[in-house]
Structure prediction request, 297 residues.
Amino acid sequence: MENLDKNLISPDRQKTYRNARYKQICKGFISFCADQVIPENMGNEIQWLESLKDQGLSASTIRTYGHAVKSYLLDNRDTTGLTANENIIAEYQIEAEFKSFKLPRVMNRKHREHLVSGEELHEILKHSNLQTRIIIEFLASTGCRVSEMTGIRLSHVRKVRESEFRIRVTGKGSKERVIRINGGLRKRLYKAFPNAMTFLFESSSGKRYTRQGVHDLVKRAGERVSIYGLHPHSFRHFYATFLIDKTGNMDAVSRYLGHSDVATTLGMYYHGKDLTLEELNLDLYGNRGKKRSTANA
Prediction:
């Protein structure tokens, strides 16, 4: 371990570890390994990455740390006495070890710049026509992907009670899950799309809404209130954050959204309490909510 620490700051490693942050990351990993029962053994990388999750570090930070340490280990592995094939195998083992840990994906800049606040959602709904308003309301109150929403057939909608309807949707990888809407939204759907015969969302001519059509519709809705580049997926981010703040149950929210990994939900879809409707005293239908007692918050 001492040799690893020396190599970290040797002159021929300066190109790879040229800034203080990378040195700090790798030294932190070395310290972690030194505290383990079997230091420098394969497997410490995964334990270390898991410990970063437990510390509550963001997805982007964990990815940065993971890539830094993987480069460090590849750059500092002992190749003494190894044949060319053995060297390739050793490198492969390090790569495979990190691949076994699913590094959280990071939301790209495009989506990060266009997160929707509760106040913005209120303005968007207020300045949209009936069909656009209901489509956006549906996205924001279910967390559906556009491809899921446009694929919903009327036969997929099941009434549980007057106040609750359950809808079967097919997500990525043809995985099915169930989402819920309230009775009020179901009535507004009937009003907005009275001629729907096969799909829940159909135009007045009886044609199913396309993914691109919804993208264009949402983009124009944003532009009407000076929000440019608005994307339907922004409402999925909005809903995920709202639901996590409301329930505090990351696992349940991840399953509801159809994610295979909680890290995806945390890393890409959670943006803090500033997006919740409750704190802004708004609801999805454009009405001001009643003031809530801070004692019950």
Remarks:
- The chain has 14 helices and three strands.
- Residues 244 and 291 are 21 Å apart (CA to CA).
- Residues 1-18, 37-42, 107-113, 259-297 have pLDDT under 50 and may be disordered.
